[in-house]
Amino acid sequence: MIKWFADDTKLSTKKGDENNVLLFGGVIVDTKAEQELIDLFHKVKNEYTFPDLPVKWNFKDLKKTYQEFGKEDDYNLLLNRSNEWRTKIFKESKNINYRVIIACLERYESQKKLKEVKDELINISFAQSLMRVGLYAKYQDWTQRIEIILDWPEGSNPKPFNREYYYAFNRGESAKGIKYLCGPLKNLGFNQSVYFTKCTHSAVLQFSDLVIGAAKDFVLKTIYGHDYSLGYDLTKLILNKYNGFPNKIIERGLNYSPKNNNYTLIESELKNNAV
């Protein structure tokens, strides 16, 4: 079984402005790599708290979870040492066979608030990343089933994902009518339905959350030129895990659209670090 565990996050390309870029993606694993990531998270978290409690990039989001289990001291420890455990996870993950696929979608200038077009943006960014998972699958020598596993959607609204997956699986195109170069997903061994679960219950989704959080910081540092960013450094650390490494990461692994000045900056930064 091959699985793609994916999640989303947002960023702004202009300081102080509303978020205008949606990132969607995560990691592809086989059964062996999935278990190795679970074991890695168990080992690292066991140094700080119960190994079955969750972590994520925006760790403050988990405060209530730790309070529920009476582990607020552990929460504070993990919060204060977040750079340490994040770095441990990324470094040790280098020995595991996984691939990263993320799509970044920058919305055009508009008077509409993000919340008014969010479902549409989610639909498009999911399609862009799912297309690349399909292409990845098309050129692999396997006959295994492929599952798409997503974090439970914000607002408990799975419709944008279900709609897009229906078109991708059955018709080989996006809900907007954009053809998938890989063809219908049903011909590539993909399961008939996308699956949802909670990030707090899945170590591999937690890893995807960390990877996409670090990728967000990589994009932000590239655009803004910050002096330091842990996420930037951690993305560099696992850059060879990105699909398309070393020469086609911007096309297959960390895609950015549209092809504007930010695309050019990110493409250049990826090329400079893909050594």
TrEMBL record:
<protein>
    <submittedName>
        <fullName>DUF3800 domain-containing protein</fullName>
    </submittedName>
</protein>
<dbReference type="Pfam" id="PF12686">
    <property type="entry name" value="DUF3800"/>
</dbReference>
<dbReference type="InterPro" id="IPR024524">
    <property type="entry name" value="DUF3800"/>
</dbReference>
